[in-house]
Amino acid sequence: MPPVAADEAGGHLGPDAAALDDSAVPSRYMPEPRTAAVAVMCLLAFGVLLGGLTGPAAQSAGIAPIVLYASAEQKAPVSSPVAETSAPPVQTPTAVASAAPEAALPAATPEPTEAAPAPKPKAPLELPEEPALPPIQHVFLIVLGDNGFESAFGEASPAPYLAKTLRAKGELLSNYYAVTQGDLANEIALLSGQGPTLETATNCPNYTDISPGTVASVYEQVTGTGCVYPAATQTLPGQLAAGGKKWKAYLEGVGSATAQPTACPHPTLGGADPNQVPLPGNPYETWRNPFVYFHSLIDGAECGENDVGLEQLATDLHAKGGTPAFSYIVPNACHDGSEAACEPGQPVGLAATEPFLQTVVPEIEASTAYKKEGGLIAITFAQAPHTETSTDSSACCGTPEYPNLPPAVAPTSTPPATGPVKPSGGGGRVGMLLISPYVEPGSANETGYYNHFSLLLSIEELFGLPPLGYAAEPALTAFDSTVFNASSAEQGEKSTPTSKVAGPAFGSSAPRPSLARAATPR
Predict the structure, then answer these.
(1) What domains, with CATH codes, occur in the chain?
(2) Which long-range contacts (CB under 8 A, 24 or more apart) does 104-107 make?
(3) What is the pLDDT of residue 386?
(4) CA–CA separation, 207 vs 192, rounded Å?
(5) How many whole angstroms separate alpha carbon 348 and alpha carbon 339?
(6) Long-range contacts for 106-115 (Cβ within 8 Å, ≥24 apart)?
(7) How many CB atoms lie within 10 A of CB 439?
């Protein structure tokens, strides 16, 4: 007898109903609830994994996306009718893939790019080449008295030999200035780079040591009152002697008076100077001889050997090897160009310099030292006039405030300086005439600005010496190719070029650059 099915109420179904139930999906194809739940969980985990591999985080990490493609014709299987106990619907991978169609697109692979070439190092900045300093072996410095530029070199100059004849032979530096007031103070500046004291600014009426004589940290300036500098103070003559070069001072009037020393004459230390003014038969003035104001020179035998009378110049010029590297030449009170007469009846002013210059300059020009060994004659004035009617205290080229003097006060009527020239603080515009095979005859330099410290610096550079005192001021301009302006043909030989070096800024403590020297002309 066939089995009888039971109904929901616990009764029995008829034979037809039981047959119908057996013809449905066999019970072995229907998962149990627990099995269906595990399957659903696995599918959900697989969907989470797919989402992680195809999401933006995976793309940013460089993981290639996994894409599942479902066939467009594939249809989801249709479940057979199930009795009231049907399994919950299962999510298929196709549904996961279609839920994020954008993630299914493959990420674009960036094309490889070539690495940018490394930047090439910049070549060092090269300035135009500056011709070397000329091979000058002998400098002849002639220092006259108190005269200004216009009175000395102007059209109405009372000294035509200086203003016209000699000017036609050389180069005129129009903007050349004294550095302070007082003849002696300017002459000391030329030799050492030292600024004035109250006593040197008045030509040292009492021959006393500078006290306390301490050395300032700025440009090694000796501070105190007095006139005679300590033995440790450096000078251009001392530099030359240390380098094996000769120096000499040729002073007109030395040895001319009875009982006067024939070399290195100076007052007794601590006493008054008897030669402050010219005496009858003795036109020598001590303050025209700056060499005797340095213990480093007067305490040894050097001053007695090298601080001599003018007549010795001709002898040394004619002697083989007798011409010094540096010659300091000074006329006496009768020929220095000052307005005070050295003796009654003697000429005064610039006209009185003519006989002196007409003798000394041709004598130097005719010498072998000047013509064959490289000579330079420099003619200038200690300072501009400082009288009640004519006073010029202008300055140029960074003239400092000297530690031994009160600050300079500019005249109230003078407008403030806007260029390199200041209305006060200096010794006035005096000009300088240069005569040499290395300067163009009849030329004038009106663009450069120079002073006594510039001249000291230029001489030191010519001889390869370090600058002393205020000559080390970076604002100064030394003589260069704009001053030594003669052509190669005029010099007789080309100068060897050297690279121009840019100098330090104004006020800098850096050392000054030096220019190379050319070879001595044959």
Answers:
(1) 131-409+418-499 (3.40.720.10)
(2) 104/54, 104/65, 104/67, 104/68, 104/69, 105/65, 105/67, 106/64, 106/65, 106/67, 107/59, 107/64, 107/65
(3) 84
(4) 19
(5) 5
(6) 106/64, 106/65, 106/67, 107/59, 107/64, 107/65
(7) 26
Q: List all residues 6 or more positions away from 212 whose beta carbon is below 8 Å from its beta carbon.
A: 223, 224
Distance (Å, rounded) from C-alpha 263 to C-alpha 271? 20
Sign of CA dihedral 483, 488, 491, 493: positive
Tens-place pLDDT, residues 451-473: 999 999 999 999 999 999 999 99
Residue pair 174/444 in contact (Cβ under 8 Å)? The answer is yes
Q: Both tokens of residue 352?
A: 């009185």
Contact status, residue 307 vs residue 242, Cβ threshold 8 Å:
no
Q: Which regions in the chain score pLDDT beneath 70?
A: 1-40, 42-130, 258-259, 408-418, 488-522
Q: At what angle do helices 183-192 and 452-462 cross, to 10 degrees?
A: 30
Question: What's the pLDDT score for residue 377?
Answer: 98
Residue 120, H or E segment = none
Distance, in Å, from the CA atom of 2 to the CA atom of 11, rounded to the nearest integer, reads: 16
pLDDT for res 3: 45
Comparing CA positions, the residue from 313, 329, 303, 325 lying closest to residue 246 is: 325
Q: How far apart are the first and last CA of the chain?
A: 151
In 3D, which of 262, 255, 318, 300 has the Cα closest to residue 282? 255
The whole-model pTM stands at 0.72
* pLDDT of res. 131: 72
Positive or negative: CA dihedral 462, 467, 468, 470: positive
* Integer Cα distance of 270 and 226 in angstroms: 10
Contact 233, 297 (CB under 8 A): no
pLDDT for the residue 490: 56
- Quick one: tokens of 351? 């006209």
Q: How far apart, in whole angstroms, are the C-alpha atoms of residue 400 and residue 390? A: 23
What is the rounded CA–CA span in Å between residue 347 and residue 342? 8
CA-based angle 157:252:457, to the nearest 5?
Answer: 70
- Using one digit for the tens of pLDDT, what is the confidence trace for 133-157? 999 999 999 999 999 999 999 999 9
> Length of the chain in residues, anyone?
522
Report CA-CA distances (Å) from 350 to 181, 251, 356. 20, 18, 11
Phi, psi (deg, nearest 5) at residue 452? -60, -35
Place of tokens 């030096």: 514
Q: Which of 285, 250, 280, 279 is nearest to 267 (CA)?
A: 285
- 429 token code pair: 């515009």
Q: Note whether 30 and 82 are within 8 A (CB).
A: yes
